[in-house]
Amino acid sequence: MAHDHHHADTRKHTHSHDHNHAHSGTDLDWAEMAGHLESQAELFAPLYESALSWLGKEVTEPGLIVDVGSGPGVVSCLFAEVFPGARVLAVDGSEPLLDRARARAERLAVGDRFGVLAGELPEVLEELDYPADLLWAGHSLHHLGDQRAALTAFAERLAPGGTLAVLEGGLPSRFLPRDIGIGRPGLQAQLDALQEEWFTRMRAELPGSVAETEDWPTLLSAAGLKYARTRSFLLDLPAPASDRARAYAVEIFSRLRDTFTDGLHAEDRATLDRLLDPADPASLHRRSDLFVLAVRTVHTAVRPV
Q1: What pLDDT digit, counting tens, does each position of 41-61 carry?
Q2: pTM of this structure
Q3: Alpha carbons 50 and 52: distance in angstroms, whole number
Q4: Paired strand residues for 300
């Protein structure tokens, strides 16, 4: 499951940072997801910090960083902390999420270098006052119907020598061993297949949807950029899970159960019910073998000088 669909989806809004795609349809409301988006991005902070540290070696002293599809701004604020000389602009289709991003920046004392821009992507980027030295699209590109056209629009907003960083792909997240002692072994692989089908439907239902081979380096080159590098980053939170990791897993599996009730094998549905029953010793709330293991992939490319 190259996309890792452990994130939600939106109507025409787009934002990022690894939201749980599992939901009862493909037409969702980002603002309703705000708490989940923040808690997930906070849990994944070590992974994002590793990615940003790597970007810091690729992009030296950026003046303006634009987070395209910022959501509630957890990663936007990380950029402000990792690049203390940069201004950061969080761009999203959801004003309530941008309100949270601005409030987070103030709490973290980076508000003087932090701005927000609300509007539909990629068109809203035409409102930028200055070209970006670093433009970050973290799991936001796949919410846009025409990804090739969006990459071209992103590239046009870069300064000469500026970098576009696209977070897409990676590996499906894992939370449990293959055999968990109840139900059929391999539950998560079954859920992966359902999420792949969901993701395909979500993409097809986007306005202006265009099918595209997800060869990101080739697409970045086609946008007129000089393809630079690809690197993947690991989040490894081993068992026994922290309270935060446990709460995240419960939320993910709850959404999966609610989304895929009709498509699930009866035994798998019964297993999910047990996993989500706090009174069951085999539940996610009580098991000792729960972990979080995730991989995210970043592709970078540079606008020629």
Answers
A1: 899 999 999 999 999 998 999
A2: 0.89
A3: 6
A4: 165, 229
